[in-house]
Amino acid sequence: MTFGERFLTYPDLFPARAGGEACGDRSLTVDFVGGPYRFTGLDEEQEQLIREHFDDLCVPLARSTGEMGVETRVFRAAESDFREVDLAGWEYTFDLDFQREAVRIAGLDFMARLEWRPRLQAALWISEASATRFPQLVFTNLIRVLTAYRLLERGGVLLHSAGIVDQDRADLFLGRSGAGKTTLSRLGLASGRIVLSDDVNAVAWAEGRPVVHKVPFSGELGRTDTCRESYPARCLCALIKDQQTMLSRLRPAESLALLIVCSPIVNSDPHRFEQLIQNLEDIAQHLPGYRLHLALGIDPWPALRHAIIERSRP
C-alpha cells in the first residue's frame, strides 16, 4: 500500500506546499523543550482542545523562550478528501513519507507537511468531520513528531523510555511497548521517586552534558507531577521483563543499537538518519549503558547505584 491510501481519497493530490483556508483566527503557543511550538489558524474548539491537553504549557508568545520556534499553520480540508476508516479494533496510527526537503503525514481526517526551509515549520489540514472523532490526538501526535525533529536538529533525541529520577539524576529505561516501562515507573512512584514519563522522554544538552527533559507525552500513568522539568542524565538501561533481577553492562555498540530502536519517527527517516546516529553516538559516549532484567516488584536502583559507582572508580 502506498503512502496515504488508507486515509486519503486522492493521495496523489497531497498538498505540495502550505496553503488554504484557515480554520479560524486563533493562535496558541505550547512551550517546552525544543519549543516554542506555535499554532496559527485555529478555530475556538481546536484552541480549547490544545489548552485542555497541554494546560500550563500553553503560554502567550511573549512569555515563551523568545526563540522563533516551530510554527504550524492550520487549514480546513473537505470531508470528501478523506476515506472512511473502519474503527472496530483500530489502533490510532498514521502514514509517513520521508523526503529530503519535507515529511508528509496522512492520518484519520488530517494531513500534515513538515518543511525545513527556511527553518522547521509545518502545515496541518484537518477535516471538519474530525471534531467528532480524534482531534486531540491529531494535535498531540503532530507535536510529538515536531518535537522529535526539533530535538534532532539541536543534537538531542526523543526516546521511547521511562524517565525516573533517583538521587537528583534521571535514569532512562528504554524499551518498546510491553517492556515494563510503566511497571517500573509505578515502582518508582511507590518508592518516592520522580517519574518524568513512563513512555517518552527528551534528551538535550546543557553545558556539555546530556539532560533529560520532561515532555507532555505519557503512557498509562498520564502526566505526572514534577518540581523540575529537567534533570542531568545518569545512565541508559535496556529494560527486559524477567523472573529475576540482574544487571549487566552494555557494550558501546549495544547502547547505540538500543538508542536507535527507541528513537521514534526519525529512526525511519533515511534523509536524517546520519544526523540521528551522530546525536546518539554523542549521548552513548557520555552515559553508561546497562541491560536490566527486572523481576516484578524488585527495586533495581541500589544495584544501579553500585554499578555506576564501580564504573567511576579509577
Summarize the structure in words.
The chain is of the alpha+beta class and 314 residues long. It folds into two domains: 11-153, no CATH class; 157-312, Phosphoenolpyruvate Carboxykinase, domain 3. The chain contains six helices and 16 strands. The chain has an eight-stranded mixed beta sheet with strand order 3-1-2-4-8-7-6-5, covered by helices on one side. A five-stranded mixed beta barrel has the order 9-10-14-13-12, surrounded by four helices. Strand 7 (110-115) and strand 8 (121-127) form a beta hairpin. Helix 4 (252-261) packs across helix 5. The longest helix has 19 residues, at 135-153. The chain starts with 25 loop residues before the first strand and ends with a helix. The model has no long low-confidence stretch (mean pLDDT 89).
Give short descriptive properties of this protein:
314 residues; alpha+beta; Phosphoenolpyruvate Carboxykinase, domain 3; eight-stranded mixed sheet; five-stranded mixed barrel; 6 helices; 16 strands; 32% strand
Summarize the topology:
Blueprint: E1 26-30, E2 37-42, H1 44-54, E3 58-59, E4 70-77, E5 94-98, E6 102-107, E7 110-115, E8 121-127, H2 135-153, E9 157-166, E10 169-174, H3 181-190, E11 194-197, E12 200-206, E13 209-213, E14 230-241, E15 246-249, H4 252-261, H5 273-286, E16 289-294, H6 301-312
Parallel strand pairs: 2-4, 4-8, 10-14, 14-16
Antiparallel strand pairs: 1-2, 1-3, 5-6, 6-7, 7-8, 9-10, 9-11, 9-12, 12-13, 13-14, 15-16
Helix pairs in contact: 1-2, 4-5
